[in-house]
Structure formats: C-alpha cells, structure tokens
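Deliverable D5.2: sample structural annotation.
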Amino acid sequence: KGCGGETFDKDLMLWFNGWATLFSAVHICLGNVFEDGIETIRKRQIKDPLSNAMNRFDLRLLDYYREKHNDLDSIIETSTSPHHLFHTITEDSTMRLHMTRQLISEAESVQS
C-alpha cells in the first residue's frame, strides 16, 4: 500500500520550547522533551499508529479522511506530491484523532 519505496519522513524535529514534532508534519506533536524525556517520545513515535501509517503512505488514511469530508478529490488535484497530500489531510486534530482511532480499531480486529 502507498507509494512504492517512497516514505513520509517521520523523523523527529526538536524545537527550542521542547516540542517534539514529526519533521514533515510539524502539526503532529509527540510530546515535550523537557517534560517527557526523549526516550518516552521515541517510544511513542515507534508505537504511534498514525505516524507509522503516514510513513508508509497507507492509503487507508484517504478512506478515513473521506468518511468525514467530501473534498478529498479537490485536495488530491491540488496536492503537489504524496507528502503534501498526507500533510494536508492530517492538519486537523479532529481528523488525526479519527484516523488514529480507525487504525487502532482495525489492528484490534485483526488480532481478535
């Protein structure tokens, strides 16, 4: 699933105020290094279903977006790359929560 061998950069970007965000999606914050410590943030990053789905351009995210919005086709038309598309569809925190819940739900149903 996704874009072949190309991946979405999920490396951490560390900010002077302590935030730890995804390098290619600074709207996704995994915590505060000063409060949580880098080890805790790295563990979060490894386990985070949304970061991992974005990293491999998981096409299910497009389906999850479409469940809540009807503008995906226009977003795809104006996106300059898969990176831009996945960045755009995850900008809204409510959408990120929806996507994360869907990913967790699917993972749990596979394990059952």
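Annotation notes: DSSP finds seven helices and three strands in the chain. Strands lie at 12-14, 19-22, 25-32.
The annotation will be released with the project's public dataset once the embargo ends.
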